[in-house]
Design brief:
CATH topology of the largest domain: Endonuclease, Chain A
Strand content: 5-15%
Radius of gyration: 20 Å
GO molecular function: DNA binding
Number of strands: 10
Strand order of the largest sheet: 9-8-7-4-5-6-10
Pfam family, one: GerE
InterPro entries: Sig_transdc_resp-reg_C-effctor, TrmB-like, Tscrpt_reg_LuxR_C, WH-like_DNA-bd_sf
Number of domains: 3
CATH architecture of the largest domain: 2-Layer Sandwich
Protein name: Regulatory protein, luxR family
GO biological process, one term: regulation of DNA-templated transcription
Helix content: 40-55%
CATH superfamily of the largest domain: Endonuclease Chain A
């Protein structure tokens, strides 16, 4: 097992996070780094590797799950997997940075970059499998982390799913100003949990449609890359002809499908605020003054100053410009 850590693994009851580079408690960071060493783990296996008791480990894993760092395995019952750090840590940073309450630390850009680079190195060395729904999720998470415009998901079933019903991807997309469109097979909506997820997506401003049959499991990113997968193979298509065919299928399904009603009005206020924070940080990096940022964002100078002060504090920056640069390194805009 590859362990993504720079220090010995040991249980640590001290949960001080003020100086933890990834913004996690020491035990949470230890567990997350260890989980990156394998496509999935049962808790008993992971506890044996780390020397934790299973009950204590379950608590830490649940903390990581709440932060969007861990997800259930789609390939093995009662197993869990680490969400790709290029998405999980950047989403965590965005959430912490834009939070109006709480003092949880924002992950440090240099620590995030080191772990992402190490992860990419390990994947390039083919230490990971190339089949299964967990691998499909990993590939999609890495692509979505760098998406610029749109994510389209084709969902052929409800029981065994990859990342189609994750909230992390839509939350990240919303903060980045991306569009998310989903086409589900009609019987997926019979599940109360799936209906609730569809309603939640609608409240975020993302549309879900249902159609009688969806012939393939696929995710399109920016109309440029298509990821297809099942139990036996995960394929990443980048060639124009192949991607065009998947786009054609997706367009035909979308145009023939029926919208799923969200059941309530949009509640994207927090996401709009998060988008404003990202815009403020981008303009800081460009060197704009408070007055200039206020004019560009349509808010008061006082609001801009509050946003800037909060960003400088949470990003541990000595200047406005440094705050913008650090936010850029985290991929927040």
């Amino acid at each position: 097992m590859t362990v993504f850590t720079e220090s010995p693994l040991r249980p640590d009851r001290q949960e001080h996070v003020d100086h933890v580079p990834l913004g996690l408690s020491r035990s949470s960071e230890t567990v997350y780094r260890a989980m990156l060493g394998s496509p999935r783990f049962r808790l008993s296996e992971l506890a044996e590797c780390l020397g934790y008791d299973v009950e204590r480990l379950a608590e830490v894993v649940e903390e990581l799950r709440l932060e969007g760092m861990v997800a259930d395995s789609a390939d093995e019952s009662e197993a869990v997997r680490a969400v790709e750090p290029c998405l999980a840590l950047r989403a965590l940073a965005a959430r912490r940075l834009c939070a109006t309450r709480g003092i949880d630390p924002v992950p440090r850009p240099e620590a995030v970059e080191r772990l992402i680079n190490l992860r990419e190195q390990r994947r390039s060395e083919r230490e990971f499998e190339s089949a299964g729904l967990d691998e499909l999720a990993a590939v999609v998470e890495r692509l979505v982390a760098h998406a610029d415009r749109e994510v389209v998901m084709l969902v052929p079933e409800s029981e065994r799913t990859s990342c189609e019903f994750s909230r992390l991807i839509p939350e990240w997309a919303s903060r980045r100003g991306l569009t998310v469109r989903s086409v589900w097979r009609a019987d997926v909506i019979r599940s109360a949990a799936r209906r609730a997820h569809g309603a939640w997506l609608g409240r975020q401003g993302f549309e879900v449609r249902v159609v009688r049959s969806v012939p393939l499991r696929a995710v399109l990113v920016d109309d440029a890359v298509a990821v297809l997968g099942d139990d036996e193979e995960v394929r990443v298509l980048r060639g124009t002809r192949q991607v065009t065919e998947v786009r054609r299928i997706a367009a035909e399904l979308w145009n023939s499908a029926s919208p799923v009603r969200s059941g309530s009005t949009s509640d994207r206020g927090a996401e709009v605020a998060g988008s404003r924070h990202a815009t403020v940080l981008r303009l800081l990096a460009e060197g704009l003054t408070d007055d200039g940022i206020a004019r560009r964002t349509g808010v008061s100078v006082r609001t801009v100053r509050n946003d800037v002060a909060s960003a400088m504090s949470r990003l541990d920056s000595r200047s406005r410009f440094q705050a913008g640069v650090r936010a850029a390194r985290l991929g927040l805009f």
